[in-house]
Structures are given as structure tokens and as C-alpha cells.
Amino acid sequence: MLRLLAQRGSWAALQAAAGPALPRALQLAKRLTASWAGPFGDSSPQRNQPENQTQSEKAAVSHFVSEAMEMLDMSPGLQRAILNPDRSLSVELMVPMDNGGVEIIMAHRVQHNNSRGPYKGGFKYHPEADLADTEA
Predict the structure, then answer these.
(1) Residue 124 and residue 110: Cα distance in Å, rounded?
(2) What is the pLDDT of residue 35?
(3) 9 pLDDT more than 60
(4) Which of 35, 40, 108, 124 is 20 to 30 Å from the Cα of 20, by its Cα?
(5) HSE on the CB side for 59, CA within 13 Å?
(6) What SS3 string covers 22-79?
(7) Which of 124, 118, 120 is nearest to 136 (CA)?
(8) Buried-exposed string 122-134: b where 16+ CB fall within 10 A, e elsewhere
(9) Cα Rg for the chain, rounded, in angstroms?
(10) What residue spans carry the region label Disordered (predicted)?
(11) What is the per-residue pLDDT for 89?
């Protein structure tokens, strides 16, 4: 992606926006993606599948975010603030169906951190969605 930005003449804009943090960000990205080889040696999203295939999305995301925060030497307090949501909300939505019945659907909303302004985003509702995956 960075190569594409450089080819399109946006490299200078990227450097200006990132400032002195760009080399460190590139080094971090390289270290994080070094172990992301897919089954055919490519950089597919199937990064290092855990031995326990039932691992939740939250655990997978927390693992990679924790690695990145350790590489950035973040304090333990800041790490906890980033990994743990401020609040989680789960509701049951009663949806009237065309056949006259009512379907109950679970919906979840997770609010992570409002230190940079109001929370953004909406509810996640899907038959297979659970709160842990929404927190990820």
C-alpha cells in the first residue's frame, strides 16, 4: 500500500502527515506482518491460526493489539484502557415477521473509549453474533 502511495505521488503527503513517527510505524507494521503468512506463504488474512480454532474474535484481536502495544512500549494502564471497553449493551429486539409471528434477535453495542469525542458506531445484530465478538 505504501508503495502504491509513493507511485501516485502521495508519499510526500504521507510523510508530512505522519512526521517522525513514520519510520517507527513502518518498522512496527513490518514486525507485526512478518508472521502473517497464509497457507501458501502469502499475506492472506489467515494469520497464524491458533491451535484452538474456537478462539473468539476478541481474543484474536486482543493478541495482535497487545503485541503492537508492547512494541510501542505503552504503559500497562493505557493498554488496559485500549483493550477493555467502557460499556457493553445487549438487547433483545422483537421483530414482527410477515407470517404474523415475532422473531427475537439479540443485538449488541460496545463503546470502547470516548476520550477523543463521542462514541461512534451502531448495533451489531446477527444470529451468530455474540458480545465477545462485538467487543473485538
Answers:
(1) 9
(2) 54
(3) no
(4) 35
(5) 8
(6) HHHHHHHHHHHHCCCCCCCCCCCCCCCCCCCCCCCHHHHHHHHHHHHHHHCCCCHHHH
(7) 124
(8) eebeeeebebebb
(9) 20
(10) 37-59
(11) 85
Retrieve residue 85's grid coordinates: 471497553
Q: What is the pLDDT of residues 22-81, one digit of tens each?
A: 666 666 666 655 555 444 444 444 444 444 444 567 788 888 888 888 888 888 888 888
Question: What mean pLDDT is reported for the chain?
Answer: 71
Read off the DSSP letter of residue 117.
S
* Close Cβ partners of 135 (under 8 Å, ≥ 6 residues apart): 58, 85, 88, 110
Count of CB atoms situated within 10 Å of the CB of 28:
15
The vertex-107 CA angle with 89 and 63, nearest 5°, equals 70
pLDDT recorded at residue 50 = 44
- Return the number of other C-beta atoms located less than 10 Å from residue 49's C-beta: 11
Buried b (16+ CB within 10 A) or exposed e, 1-13: eeeeeeeeeeeee
> For residues 62-91, b (16+ Cβ closer than 10 Å) or e, as one string?
beeeeeebeeeeeeeeeeeebeebeeeeee
